[in-house]
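Notes for week 9. Today we move from apo structures to complexes. The key idea is that a small molecule is not decoration. When we ask for a structure prediction with zinc ion present, the ligand SMILES becomes part of the input, just like the chain. The input block below holds both the sequence and the ligand string. Read it once before you look at the output, and try to guess where the molecule might sit.
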Amino acid sequence: MAHACPRCGKPVQRGYSPGAQFTAGLVGALFYAAFGPFQCATCGKIPTSEFPPGVRKNIILTSAGLAAAGVVLLVGVLCLMAIGKH
Ligand SMILES: [Zn+2]
């Protein structure tokens, strides 16, 4: 999903950190996608607080969904690892 930049109106993207993906794998990437800053091609990083309230609510809901997906994924992987040890 794309949001408009509050400064220039261009679409912004979530920033993805190669470092976070390297250290924590898919779960880390998910959490970074959920809580990382937005990135505008023109203005750089855009803090969530600069978006209008309606958009911010949308962003928070999406972040919560991504975080929940990350937790479910983490628990699933831990369960698989626990089963594999027996
Ligand atoms: Zn911008």
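DSSP finds two helices and four strands in the chain.
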